[in-house]
Automatic annotation (TrEMBL):
Keyword S-adenosyl-L-methionine included in the entry's annotation: yes
A molecular function (GO) term: methyltransferase activity
Record keywords: Methyltransferase, S-adenosyl-L-methionine, Transferase
Gene this protein is translated from: LOC115974994
Sequence intervals crossing the membrane: none
Cellular component GO terms held in the UniProt record: nucleus
Entry's family note: Belongs to the class I-like SAM-binding methyltransferase superfamily. C5-methyltransferase family.
Species, as recorded: Quercus lobata
UniProt-recorded name of the protein: tRNA (Cytosine(38)-C(5))-methyltransferase
Organism lineage string: Eukaryota, Viridiplantae, Streptophyta, Embryophyta, Tracheophyta
Residues the record marks as active site: C90
Any single biological process term in GO: methylation
Alphabetical list of PANTHER family matching this protein: TRNA (CYTOSINE(38)-C(5))-METHYLTRANSFERASE
InterPro entries: C5-MTase, C5_MeTfrase, SAM-dependent_MTases_sf
Iron found in the keyword field: no
């Protein structure tokens, strides 16, 4: 054996092998890249061919297109993966859904994968699960924790939002991080805790954060003030201030109805995505009908609402709309039809999800499909530091695995 140092270096360069379940448009993979983790996605899995088109367009690899429910323990063993990243469908646990939890057919594939863990000859060393807030109260969550404890994992859970990472975007999500013993977390005193603060991710070992869940107005105000303005995330920034006499808005009724009616269609009848801003203006008829239920933000706002997969199809409760003319007095006291309301573009939603600039949709993906895929995806600003924390190897862990100072290996 050459000097221990050189062998350690050589072995350390082996990337962690990762499986990306429910890969969608690759939010987990981008987060892994952003985290700077030395990892290789050895396979991604998704049943949706449109999502797989986008994934392939950006990563040059088409995910395994099939039902995750049909994978076997032998299939999973064949990848020899160290980490499993999972973002299963969230409809079984959303407030809008029927909350059937594990009884919902969309939860079956996730339960099946969990049940396979004890049957694999090489279970993963690390596991990461993302889902909606509410999942932590479901019977699927109970099952997840039961299986992870039985298979020797230590667990830390988080509920975090991009607002806590300087992004003016409210999308709180549940995360489960698990490491199989003898692996351990840097802050082991946070094991089996549900945390609402990102502080442990930044290397602080402050024990008080374990109980911190400060929902006070002051805390929210402080958080929002530390965020960038929405303006920084826009691709079209041509908003104006309202003049005293007339709104700075052109005839948006005309622009929007025309634009909505005239969208070019491809041979399957899906509208093609042009580069014009016109297609994003909200028709006057929708403003008149739904104006009071819309969430409206301004370029200088420090918060916008979660974009769901139904954004652009519906205006109520699916995400914020942008007022492109800043009225003297913000809000609904100023006539909405003079504020030139528009949808955020898919690129702007991707920006708020912290997707990199080189992320693109292939031409054949329609506008609605783009919003649907983005609405299903995740915030890289939140997931990247969580993955960094998950993959970090505390010194004590290396000592536990290799008490006699053996060379460290992932295998
Ligand atoms: C919440 S989204 C995850 C999105 C992903 N994290 C991203 O960044 O885009 C869930 C994904 O799981 C896929 N999916 C749902 N059920 C599946 C199943 N049984 N087998 C394979 N993929 C499934 C959906 O097509 C969808 O893309």
């Amino acid at each position: 054996m050459a000097g221990l140092g050189s062998e350690k270096q050589e072995v350390d360069e082996q990337p962690w092998k990762v499986l990306e379940f429910y890969s969608g448009i690759g939010g987990m993979r981008y987060s892994l890249m952003k985290a700077g983790v030395n990892a290789k996605v050895v396979e991604a899995f998704d049943i949706n061919d449109k999502a797989n088109d986008v994934y392939q367009h950006n990563f040059g690899h088409r995910p395994y297109q099939g039902n995750i429910q049909s994978l076997t323990a032998a299939d999973l063993d064949s990848y020899g993966a160290h980490a499993w990243l999972l973002s299963p469908p969230c409809q079984p646990y959303t407030r809008q859904g029927l909350q059937k939890h594990s009884g919902d057919a969309r939860a079956f594939s996730f339960l099946k994968i969990l049940e396979l863990i004890p049957h694999t000859s090489q279970p993963p060393s690390m596991l990461f699960v993302e889902n909606v807030v509410g999942f932590e109260k479901s019977d699927t969550h109970t099952k997840l924790i039961e299986i992870l404890e039985k298979t020797n994992f230590v667990i830390q859970e988080f509920i975090l939002s991009p607002l806590q990472f300087g992004v003016p975007y409210s999308r709180p999500r549940y995360f489960c991080l698990a490491k199989r013993k003898p692996s351990c977390f840097q802050n082991h005193f946070l094991n089996n805790k549900l945390l609402w603060s990102p502080i442990p991710l930044f290397g602080h070992d402050d024990t008080t954060v374990a109980n911190e869940h400060d929902q006070s107005q002051e805390n929210w105000d402080r958080l929002l003030q530390s965020c960038e303005p929405v303006q920084k995330f826009l691709e079209f920034k041509n908003h104006s201030n309202q003049s005293d006499t007339e709104s700075g808005c052109l005839d948006t009724t005309h622009v929007s109805t025309e634009a909505f009616g005239d969208l070019e269609k491809n041979d399957k009848g899906n509208e093609l995505v042009g580069s014009s801003l016109d297609q994003y203006f909200v028709p006057l008829s929708l403003i008149e009908r739904w104006g009071s239920a819309m969430d409206i933000v301004y370029p200088d706002s420090k918060r916008c609402c979660c974009f769901t997969k139904s954004y652009y199809r519906y205006v109520k409760g699916t995400g914020s709309l942008l007022a492109t003319v800043q009225p003297k007095k913000k809000g609904k006291s100023s006539p909405l039809k003079e504020q030139c309301l528009r949808f955020f573009t898919p690129r702007e939603v991707a920006n708020l999800h912290s997707f990199p600039e080189d992320f693109h949709f292939p031409q054949q993906i329609s506008l609605r499909q783009r919003y649907a895929l983005l609405g299903n995806s995740l915030s890289i600003a939140v997931v990247a530091p969580l993955l960094q924390y998950l993959f970090a190897e505390p010194l004590v862990q290396q000592m536990q695995i290799f008490p006699s100072n053996d060379a460290y290996t992932h295998n």
